[in-house]
Amino acid sequence: MKKVVIYTDGACSGNPGPGGWGAVLMYENAKKEVSGGSKETTNNIMEITAVVESLKLLKYPCEVEVYSDSAYVVNTFEKNWLEKWKKNGWKNSKKEDVKNKELWEKLDSLCQIHKVSFIKVKGHADNELNNRCDELARGAIG
After folding, report:
1. Strand-pair category, 115-120 with 62-68
2. At the N or C end, where does the chain have fewer CB atoms within 10 A?
């Protein structure tokens, strides 16, 4: 199985407000940068969208390491929130509807195709690739 490393980030000017996302995908010696934006969104939507759009670019099932500074994204998988949400009819621990359900469903279906692990990185620190994703996301703000 091919191994791919992806760094992602989302940004928002106001929350909600115009937002952007950015990602850097790496496979062997190849590196690809992608980004996009939305006129009215939230930071969390942009964080999830960065991962969804990155995984959609993979042509074959891959082993993927996703590096994100979003605790929301990483914890959803590392703390099994997603499985609990699905089991509870898309309700969170407070019995409220899970926000961004459609995006989580898209991400979940992509994670069925690929073997994905999520790794939390410190945001706005000295991680060159995370900083590059932040630049891409800010540059894509609509």
Report:
1. parallel
2. N
Each residue's pLDDT tens digit, 37-64: 999 999 999 999 999 999 999 999 999 9
Whether 69 is catalytic is yes
pLDDT digits (tens, 9 = 90+) for 57-109: 999 999 999 999 999 999 999 999 999 999 999 999 999 999 999 999 999 99
Whether 9 is a known active-site residue: answer yes
Q: How far apart are CA 92 and CA 82, in angstroms?
A: 9
Report the alpha-carbon distance of residue 2 to residue 124 in Å, rounded: 29
CA distance 24 to 67: 10
Whether residue 124 lies in the annotated active site:
yes
* Residue 123: pLDDT band with limits 50, 70, 90: confident
HSE (side-chain half, CA atoms, 13 Å) at 136: 23
- Tokens standing for 105? 């469903």
Rounded Cα gap, residues 105 and 99, in angstroms: 11
Q: Which of 40, 124, 139, 142 is catalytic?
A: 124
Secondary structure (DSSP) of 15-30: SSEEEEEEEEEEETTE
